[in-house]
């Protein structure tokens, strides 16, 4: 049984976002590869939350506004993907690579 069928969507999304934040914090504060690599792996697992937010947001919208909701959510997701690279480069240049993980975990 898929996890999305076992847990209520809001609770599952909240748990995945918290898990992503915790994994990013651990990755940013890791001093050893043995800690950093599993934290990065878990970050990838937990950031699958975006794939849940899109259909949940559409489901929450009124039926006549679902297309608009999809457009807004998908645009936000794409902008986040596109802008994350330059933002991470700026943060890394100003501070360090660890700061990028720590700020992302907040």
The gist of it:
This protein has six helices and no strands. With 106 residues, the chain is an all-alpha fold.
What would you say this structure looks like, in words?
- The protein is mostly helical and 106 residues long.
- The model has no long low-confidence stretch (mean pLDDT 89).
- The chain is 83% helix and 0% strand.
Whole-angstrom Rg: 16 Å
- First CA to last CA: what distance? 32 Å
Largest sheet: none
* Helix run count: 6
What is the typical, i.e. mean, pLDDT? 89
| Count of strand segments | 0
Morphology: flat
Helix content: over 70%
| pLDDT < 50 stretches | none
Class per helix and strand makeup:
mainly alpha
Encode the helix/strand succession as letters.
Answer: HHHHHH
Strand content: under 5%
List the helices and strands and how they pair.
Layout: H1 3-6, H2 9-29, H3 33-46, H4 50-60, H5 66-94, H6 97-105
Helix pairs in contact: 2-3, 2-6, 4-5, 5-6
